[in-house]
Amino acid sequence: MKNNELITLSDDFLTVGDTTTPNEKIMESQDCCVFYDEAQALRNINLEVGKKEVLSLIGPSGCGKSTFIRCLNRLNDTIDSAKVTGKITLEGQDIYNSDMDVVLLRARVGMVFQKPNPFPKSVYENVAYGPRIHGMSESKADMDEIVETSLLRAGLWDEVKDRLNTSGTALSGGQQQRLCIARAIAVRPDVILMDEPCSALDPIATDRIEDLISELKENYAIVIVTHSMSQASRVSQRAAYFHLGHLVETGKTSKIFGDPDHELTQNYIKGRIG
Amino acid sequence: MSNPSSNSSSITEIVNKGLKKRYRSEFMFRLYGITSILFAAAFLIVFFSSIIDKGYSAFTQGELNISIYLDPEIIDPDNTLDEEEIRYANYDKLVFDSLKNFFPSVSSRKERKELKALVSNGTSLRIQSLVLDDMSLIGKTLDLSVKLDSDIDMFLKGNVDITLDESQRRISDNQVKWTNELKTKGLISQKFNSTLFSAGDSREPEQAGVLGALVGSFFMLLITFIVAFPLGVAAAIYLEEFAPKNKFTDFVEVNINNLAAVPSIIYGLLGLAVFINFFGMPRSAPLVGGLVLALMTFPVIIIASRAALQSVPPSITDAALGVGASKIQTVFDHVFPLALPGMLTGSIIGMARALGESAPLLMIGMVAFVVDIPSTPLDASAALPVQVYLWADAPERGFVERTSAAILVLLFFLLVMNSTAIWLRNKFEIKW
Question: How far apart are CA B285 and CA A169, in angstroms?
Fold first, then answer.
């Protein structure tokens, strides 16, 4: 077996497999490239995200999957040296176009991070913050309802309903991550991005988050970056394998994990599973 | 392939060989650390004990129990009860008469002068104000405890060498004799020197206090805080969170760091040129002092605030941006509240430095002799460190102990401010 690290792909490499979604498409990346100063982190990524599906991004460290996910809600804007070319659309609208408001974009494309990062405020405030800044509630009762529904959907309500005023940082790691998910869905996004959401959690908490992801896909499009093969195969319908900034292969999860076409994908899958 | 057991034993040997050296270097480092801390602590102890030793006696003041007959013949001979007439009565004579009751034999001009000088020359003013407050006292006898003159007080505190020839000391043989007599009669006692905290400056040590300087310093720090804190914090937030990172902001940053290192007297010259000469603000006023100290503290606050902002974890910024908060919402809803305790701590430490600053205040005329206690920041005033400077320069022996006492007051306020900074930091520090 050749070492994947040593294999580089040519600049005009074309992605193997089907980049389109069988569902109705909500986001699409066309020839997306990302540069950090001179270094190119992503090369011509073409990929669709469909409604009501979970798309998993896999690949070795440094392959660009986190960079890609942060392009989808323009969080790369906060890095001064990052430059994005190509086109990423949300329901047909180019999100890097000047008439796209980044605040609106991030309200529609929510994000859950690798390390649980609740605000050091109360559980209630954590969830209510997003709806409040967007003016999504008319009254206190409205807000209470949004908070309750979001926490219910995140599967956290029963555990925290009696202590909504305690600090979000006082919860356990798994609870904190579900609180972050509740915070993301409170603003009713269309897409939820998850950047290795379980990497800091124990197996039981991971199970709960995976169950939650499967439930959430009934209402949202979810893009998840993960290092765990088994997690990708459990939760996602489609998978995309990244290698050194290239999107090597994409398609149905069963196809990618069962019978991948490209040699690099095969090596990666075998190396990790077998 | 080598035998694993021999291999592991050789590793043990190699490690063992170096272990002793490693532990020794750790031990030596600890030793250096402890030595330097002890060294610093020793200096601190010497410093404090010397100041306390010199200054503690200023907190008491010798007083004489005396009965003063408020003779209507002297105060109000025509029984007019006219305030003007009563104000200008000869109270010195009243004091002298009651002192003479103790020593009836005093007659010559020299002796009379010496006897009069036993008590503070503020005594007659005190009696005047007592009488003006309550005219029904006229004709009665008042039992008062009055301050001894500072020279007598110094003698009682053992600061006068009476073995010297009379002409070489500030207190005469007669005064020594009388004081000792009064003392054996139990009429002299050391009382708490409340004047030190309730009066402004004075030429007479026994009538001098630090209140004027304290109020002046308070007004100055108030103005410094009001001006420098919001400006410094706003500048730090802009530079840290909003400003583009380019050559110009680098240049600004370098110069802010430079400003923090500019000698404080330069700020005094700037204040003199700009605030007093150009804007025509009053000289010696806490307003100008506060503005000058604000200029001086400003870069310190910017640097402390930027450090506080940098210490807020980026995951919080990501989280806020991730739910769609705008840049300004992210900064003011999340980053700023988390950085505020650090900003306050840094600012209080900067202000504590400003409180102890005297050089720039000399340049703007706050070194003037001011008796009145300022009631607004526009009144002429002294400041605590300048008061220390003024008293250290005064020739009277009584000011030596008062200088140390003023230093103690200054150190007390510095300690309070620095403790507040630590308390604030511990109270509002958010742990993740």
Answer: 49
Q: What CA–CA distances, in Å, run from B30 to B22, B33, B38?
A: 13, 5, 12
Task: Please name the amino acid found at residue A57.
Answer: L
| Contact predicate B313/B339, CB 8 Å | no
Q: At how many degrees (to 10) do helices B398-428 and B384-393 cross?
A: 160
Residue B313: how many other CB atoms lie within 10 Å: 14
Checking ipTM against 0.85, whether it exceeds it is yes
User: What pLDDT shows up at residue B412?
Assistant: 94
Q: Which 3 state secondary structure label does DSSP give B68?
A: strand
Judge whether B404 and B55 are in contact, CB under 8 Å: yes
Among partner residues A120, A180, A187, which is closest to B324 by beta-carbon distance?
A187
| Contact with chain A for residue B313, Cβ under 8 A | yes
Q: How far apart are the first and last CA of chain B?
A: 50
Domain A12-122+190-273 is in which class? alpha beta
Domain ranges of chain A: 12-122+190-273
Q: Quote the pTM value.
A: 0.83
Beta strands in B39-103 (DSSP E): 60-69
Length of chain B: 432
Determine which helix (DSSP H) or strand (DSSP E) holds A247, and give its type and residue range: strand A246-252
Residue that has been written with the tokens 């329901």 in this structure: A91
Cβ neighbours around A25 below 10 Å, total: 17
Distance from CA of A103 to the nearest CA of B (A): 5
Query: Are the CB atoms for B188 and B62 separated by under 8 Å?
Result: yes
Contact yes or no for A106 and B245 at CB 8 A: no
Contacts of A180 in chain B (CB under 8 A): 319
Look at residue B217 and tell me whether its pLDDT is greater than 60: yes
Q: Which range is most confident: A24-28, B19-23, B218-222? A: B218-222
Instruction: Work out the pLDDT band at B169, boundaries 50, 70, 90.
Output: confident
Give residue-wise pLDDT tens across range A48-99. Answer: 999 999 999 998 888 888 899 999 999 888 888 888 898 999 988 899 888 8
Determine the pLDDT at residue A38: 85
C-beta of residue A52 within 8 angstroms of C-beta of residue A219: yes
